[in-house]
Amino acid sequence: MVMQISLVIFFTLHLSVTVVTSAKLTIINQCNYTVWPASSTSAGTAGNTGNATHTGFILKPGENSTITTSDKWSGRVWGRTLCTTDSATGNFSCVTGDCGSGKIACDNSGSRPLTLAEFSLNGSNNQDYYDVDLVDGYNVPMNIVPLNSSGKCNITGCPTDLNAVCPTELKAMNNGTLVGCQGPCAAFNLQVFCCAGSHSTPETCEPSVYANIFKKACPTAYSYPYDDSTSTFSCPATDYHVVFCPANSTSLNPVDQVGSSVSVGESLIAGSGTTRWLSTSGDFAFGFYQLPDELFLLAIWYEKIQTDAIIWYANGDNPAQKGSRLVLNDSSGLVLTNPQGLELWRSNFTSGSVSKGMMNDDGNFQLQDENSGAIWDSFSHPTDTLVPNQVMELNGNLSSRQGAFNFSRGRFKLHLQEDGNLVLNLINLPSNYSYDPYYSSDTNSDAKNQTNVGQRLIFDRSGLLYIEKKGGDNISISNQNGTFSTDNFYYKATINYDGVFTIAFYPKDPKRGQSWVIAKTIPENICLYSTFTDGEGVCGFNSICTLTNDQRPNCTCPDGYSLIDSNNMYAGCIPNFQVICQAGGNWGSQDDMYTMKELPNTDWPKSDYEIISPSSLQECKESCLQDCLCVLVSFNQSSCWKKKLPLSYGRNDQVVKGISVMKLMKNDPFSSISNQKKDHETLIIVISVLLGSSMLVIVTLLGAMFFGFPYNRKKIKSCRTNKNVVDNNLRNFSFKEIVEATSNFREELGRGSCSVVYKGTIEMMVDVAVKKLDKLLQDSDKEFQTEMSVIGQTHHRNLVRLLGYCNEGQHRILVYELMSNGTLASFLFTSLKPNWNQRFQIVLGIARGLVYLHEGCCTQIIHCDIKPQNILLDDHYNARISDFGLAKLLLINQSHTETGIRGTKGYVAPDWFRSAPITAKVDTYSFGVLLLEIICCRKNVEKEFVNEEQGILTDWAYDCYKTKRLDNLLENDNEVGNDMMSLEKLVMIVIWCIQEDPSLRPTMKEVLLMLEGIVEVVVPRSPYLYGSVSCN
């Protein structure tokens, strides 16, 4: 136990035998719980010849008992809490203050943490000396009250609930309950806190940040070992009361001192004069933070900082409109609603009733019950930032946002794993799949030494961030040595939207600067971290990462490539040219088509598919020029690495050795199409799902008519001006060439109702799929030419690419690139379920392909037959839509009476059976069915089920959704079952897609936005007119 050095010396100098007397210490319990008081006599103190009666006893609430001391007594009194007697052994023990005797009486000092009353009685000049000591921690409020008749002796103590302001790293927990506050010496065992070793003198041991916290809460109590001048009191020899939970403790409640109270019923209105609740110091604010787009974020922020001030937020995926309201009520806590009264967010807690809210001075907003106990707090639900006094427990996460002012969940995560390892992960959105870490603290399980395992990430009040190990040691994350005190600087630790974890500080004094200063970045150079095994990297596919002066990544596209999203440099790049991998036509030689550009100190380390060694630089370039798959080579020390699209983890840095050489098309015949497409992107994207409101539907359709039709006419006209370019895009095979390529149609790959598919091989040993159409309509020649004209203009990574065609005599044949992994049906409907991340990526690919067909082509293409057999999988299991354009092209509002019903039973939309126009919404319906099949890994219609209600998957799924039994849809699929919230979201999307009323179905663009988490999925209405079956 830490002794107060100067206090012992002080007692020694003043103890002399002058008057022989005794004192009575009356112990009073004013707590609303039982306390077991204890006392011990200080050994080895000069002049201490006395003893005390009653070294241990019990006091129930309201009871008191007296300890009588003998002459010259020096010793301590404290309270023990949460004491029990083992019924089997009779052993007595306490959670705090236990003296280790195994019985209620004590013969030793108490275990920390404990609040101590210290006495040295009847010293020189008949003086008593006393203090209340917090150096060994705190477990119960306490006062010492002298009973001297003069009334001039001081009352001292710590009457406040110090647990309420106890720094997280000092909290003493028992089975998840806070039972006391440790002293920093006991918590950290460092000389600077213990006033030992090189810090053993008053000159070298100064009050720590923790001592200042204790001192602020309890000004007259001992806060550190040399705290004599303000904490040691004297009084002519007298008797004393030692009071647990003094009556005035309520008025000194530390929560009232360090936080601002919010009453039940109070509210805030976004955009009004009342938009925030401040902490007492004014350092922190909780309320509506206005974003640049005139929307509002429910957040906590540093009130006195103008930039990057937000430390917590609630509705990042769904910012609130002006006029939205936040109210504090007793049953639900905080509830956020929009101006129409629709709930946007609420605080969730499992039990209790809210008595008040507290905006504390450490940045933590709490909901408290009537006993001031926290039943919900923002520190326990962190977003992307930690601040001093905040702790992240095992399995805790910080998730980045998507952009500077886009607070939707981003692509990066800081995670304290169950094994104690702190890692940074790249996340695949919106599936939430975590790729391998690109940073690790290496504090995970050690079979030989379990004390090395991390158990908490602590951001302490001194501004230090560290991992606390089970053995008590700490692993520093920050390299900041405490020079910049939290008394003078604000701090935060953030996982940023670019994947860099930063620790930063901001001067409280404006004269010292008004910007955040980065103290630490993890990793130090994120551009060089290529330890990811999958994913697109920090900057997305096909881009180059360069580190800026502030150690943050800057993402650029190489020549010949453009940003996918001009507003988001982290989204990756796409080539401005088309890689052509078939021979024939009038393309000319590879040398004529391409040029090679050198990029020094640049590399894409994860995109190799062939290595040539030894090789010269010229040989390396030539090899790439003659290889249609090769888009780039990296050359270093006589070795050549050939790379293909997509390029990942591109970086440019002086430490990157060698040179990369990129293959660029000299004169790209598709550039004019690409540029015109960019000039005519969609003017309006409906961001909200059609919610069953007929007025909303009408307004939406009128908007589409007003803006959409002139745009479509302009777009079609633009495409026609490039007809010659489009005609050159496809190779026109002769029938003889087709026969030779297929070895006279020898190897059949598949067969449909109107065609047979054969395997073939064309020049340069390129394998192809040859689709021979055998059932044609009367006007098939005209239709075929139309199909070729439109299909020839399509180019998307989620469509099967048409390489050429044969239109000779009665032969109508299409030549496609061959997909090596077959159909989605053969992949999906097997006894071994594919992993969920793979399935979800296929879902996104299909959705993106359909959005392109519906909105990205010169002439809208409605597929009409979306089903697993028409989804093919390439080498990397990316989804590719096939057979698009093979149904007769349907212009908007074309009636089914002119075309006949197209599609496959189980996937076909009910629109076909009614006198209604056929629109792209028929594909939305089929996609909904397909999405459900991918979720459940079973066909929509299966007659072999014993339970008839399970035979039609769409019916069964809706009723399982209604009855909250979605787990019934999953058969031995723990991967999906572990995230029921995501499953529910996907089933809700399915229900919107399969609405019988096509006007209520979302467009595929809206479906994609929901899948990507950009648009909220609202509760769907019933898709059926006449109900459905029950879920058992």
TrEMBL record:
The keyword Signal applies. It comes from the Eukaryota. It holds the Pfam family Pkinase. One of its GO terms (cellular component) is extracellular region. Residues 1-22 form the signal peptide. It is found in: Membrane; Secreted. Belongs to the thaumatin family. This is non-specific serine/threonine protein kinase.
